[in-house]
Amino acid sequence: MQQIGTNRGQSLVEILIAVAIGAVLVVAGAAMIAPALQSNAQATKEQAASSLGKELIDNVRAWSGGNWNNVLALATGTANHYYLNTTSSPFAPATGTQSIVITSATSSVTYSRYFYLSNVYRDSNGNVVTNGGTYDPSTEQVTVVYGWSGGSTGTMSTYVVRGNNNVFFQNDWSGGPGQAGPVTSTGNQFASSSSIDYSTSTGSLYVSIPGY
After folding, report:
1. Which domain covers residue 82, as residue numbers?
2. Above 70 in pLDDT, residue 156?
3. 71 found inside a domain
4. DSSP string of 45-75, one letter each residue
5. Whole-model pTM?
């Protein structure tokens, strides 16, 4: 009977030791898993924010290709924030920062994005330079800034270039001077005149030479 009691006491001690070791392993495992889960959640947010930034930069590229004058109408510089309203066609620029809420089964994250424009200057060889050079009105640098609430921000940049020019024919100048450019459709005016007769015949311009 004494031997049986001793064996039972030893078994109880072994069980307690096993439970203690198991608890330590569980705590250690949790301590290792928690940072991994947090890192995975962070990577997921970074990937979503980056995708939203790329989407905006692609939309700006398409929008600038549709009408270059829209790009030139926006103010340049890091302080001038814009985003595109894509709910209608063509896209329309809006001032400020766009907020986008993405909801999943476990969380709801608010992402932000905007872009700003920078003038581009080129040297005598046509290369883009950061100092000096000649202003190129047919190229703009687009920088997109993206991030999420409580997280970091990232940037991505690209250049947009004026593509094919729209060409049209105008054969009525009877409206005279006063048409500011650039123009996107035909009319009956032109910018300015000096010694020009535009009223004698529709579709023709005559140079008026004093004394003749």
Report:
1. 10-160
2. yes
3. yes
4. HHHHHHHHHHHHHHHHHHHHHH-HHHHHTSP
5. 0.62
Q: What is the pLDDT of residue 188?
A: 82
Residue 1 domain-assigned? no
Q: What tokens were used for 108? A: 């709801």
Please, which pLDDT band fits residue 165 given cuts at 50, 70 and 90? low
Q: Is residue 14 part of a domain?
A: yes
* Boundary of a domain, candidates 160, 177, 198: 160
Question: Helix or strand or coil: residue 94?
Answer: strand
User: If DSSP codes are grouped into helix, strand and coil, which group holds residue 145?
Assistant: strand
Where are the alpha helices (H) located in the chain, listed in sequence order? Answer: 2-66, 68-72
Decide: helix, strand or coil at residue 92: strand
Q: Per the structure, how many domains does the chain have?
A: 2
Cα separation of 88 and 189, whole Å?
A: 32
Higher pLDDT residue, 173 or 95?
95
What is the pLDDT, as a whole number, of residue 211? 62
Residues 183 and 197 in one domain: yes
Residue 115 within any structural domain of the chain: yes
C-beta separation of 122 from 131 below 8 A = no
Q: Distance (Å, rounded) from C-alpha 89 to C-alpha 76?
A: 24
* Per-residue pLDDT tens over the stretch 88-140: 888 999 999 999 999 877 778 999 999 999 999 999 999 999 999 999 999 99
